[in-house]
Amino acid sequence: MKLISKFITVALVAIGLSACVNTQQMNAQAESQYSQFKQKASQLGVLDTTSSTAKRIHQVFNKMKPYAERENKTGVPFSWEVIVIKDKELNAWAMPGGKMAFYTGLVDQLKLSDDEIATVMGHEMIHALNEHSKAGANRGAVTDTIFGITGAILGDINLGGVSGLGALKTYAVDNVFSRSDESEADEYGLYLMAKSGYNPKAAPGLWTKMASATGGSGGFFSTHPADEDRQANMQKWLPQALEYYNAR
Ligand SMILES: [Zn+2]
Questions:
Q1: Ligand 1 centre and the CA of 153: distance in Å?
Q2: Ligand 1 mean position to 156 CA, how many Å?
Q3: Given CA atoms 44, 48, 50, 52 in this order, what sign does their dihedral have?
Q4: What spacing in Å lies between the alpha carbon of 48 and ligand 1's midpoint?
Q5: Residue-wise DSSP of 207-244
Q6: 81: CA distance to ligand 1 center in Å?
Q7: In the chain, N or C terminus with fewer CB closer than 10 Å?
Q8: 124 alpha carbon – ligand 1 mean position (Å)
């Protein structure tokens, strides 16, 4: 289903991004999309700035932000930002340039600890830092002209089930990252959370929670690695992550 809709989107959109996309252009485009999304969410009253969940997400984000920027090898400083969307969807995403969103459902329904929030945060930050959207953008893949969203830029983004945001969902494109990008986001996200002072031992359990909550399919997680692969990798990466964590 997803594949079909992706092909239809590609077919519908003849123009796409024809020229080679550089970091500045990509970040600027993402930033403009992000502010539109934020505005829409605000109009719909789903921008959560006050709940204890929102506060915790911002806390984790603020703690990780300087460490994330330290890993920025793009040559362009990011303007990091996170917004919290009041919605039951188990969802989180990051745009190029460090514009992120977390959905309350992810944290509340899965009862995430701060270490677990940091696991997802790290994963998403690495997608942005390692510019996983760039390959897709340079392929001219999946551009949506109606809302002006470049699917390749959106990456992990599934705008979710927020009722009024349903219109946006139509224009959003599901995950376009490759399996190796996902694996890279897992690995370096784990190191990033550890360097930021969050216990990487929380990561394997978090991914298991995610997998069982989603039945391994649907939305954000459908294109992410199978839980068994993920667990095996986590065990491989944990010693290095713990070194970072304990060196603090
Ligand atoms: Zn991902």
A1: 13
A2: 6
A3: positive
A4: 23
A5: HHHHHHHHTT-SGGGTTSPPHHHHHHHHHHHHHHHHHH
A6: 18
A7: N
A8: 6
Residues 182/207, Cβ–Cβ less than 8 Å:
no
pTM of the model: 0.81
Query: CA dihedral defined by 22, 23, 29, 31, rounded to 10 degrees?
Result: -170
Q: Tens digits of per-residue pLDDT, 49-97?
A: 999 999 999 999 999 999 999 999 999 999 999 999 998 888 888 888 9
What DSSP line would sit under 105-163, residue for residue?
HHHHHTT--HHHHHHHHHHHHHHHHTTHHHHHHHTT--B-SSS--BHHHHTT------G
**Ligand 1 center to 36 CA (angstroms):** 23
Assign 76 to helix, strand or coil: coil
Give 2-27 pLDDT, tens digit per residue: 344 444 333 333 334 444 678 898 88
Rounded CA gap, 224 and 246, in Å? 29
Residue located via tokens 């490759």: 178
Among 188, 38, 64, CA closest to 117: 64
CA distance 234 to 241: 10
The CA 177 to ligand 1 mean position distance, Å, reads 7
Output the CA 127–ligand 1 centroid distance in Å: 7
Structure tokens at 11: 């077919």
